[in-house]
Design brief:
- There is one protein chain.
- By secondary structure, the protein is mainly alpha-helical.
- Helix content is 62%, strand content 0%.
- The chain is globular.
Length: 143
């Protein structure tokens, strides 16, 4: 799959890398470069996969792109509980699990390519994936 690099990704790659081990004073989202980096990376992912799919297979991609960017921005932000989990559960509704997993793989590869440590990249993916999977509550019908 061809690699698409946005201007914000290029700017991030030019920034000096600090310690990306997940310091307590700085959240994961800020270490990445903020919401714009996440939004751009999600957009790049959908642009890259959209080139190889039929139009009818991409009809839901706009909604998925927006929802996944919101979920990742929230998952990687530093918010207190229970607000963090409640908002995550709301944002996780309607996410396509296969597309979300593919997005996480893409994001991890992007981070490694930009020079982030494998440990940091894995921590980020694990954080987002764990939160997403904790939001998957079985639906029940109230009687």
């Amino acid at each position: 799959m061809p690699r698409v690099v946005s201007s914000s990704t290029q700017k991030l790659a030019q920034m000096p890398l600090a310690d990306h081990s997940g310091s307590a004073s700085q959240g994961i989202l800020q270490q990445l470069g903020g919401r714009q980096f996440v939004d751009d990376t999600v957009g790049e992912f959908y642009q890259a996969i959209g080139k190889y799919l039929a139009p009818q297979d991409t009809e839901d991609h706009g909604k998925q792109r927006n929802r996944q960017a919101q979920f990742l921005n929230h998952a990687l932000s530093a918010q207190p509980e229970p607000i963090h989990s409640a908002r995550a559960s709301f944002l996780a509704r309607g996410l396509n699990p296969a597309l979300f997993e593919a997005l996480l793989e893409y994001l991890e590869a992007q981070l490694l390519e930009l020079g982030f440590s494998p440990c940091f990249s894995q921590q980020l993916v694990t954080t987002a994936s764990d939160l997403y999977h904790s939001c998957e509550a079985p639906l029940s019908i109230a009687c």
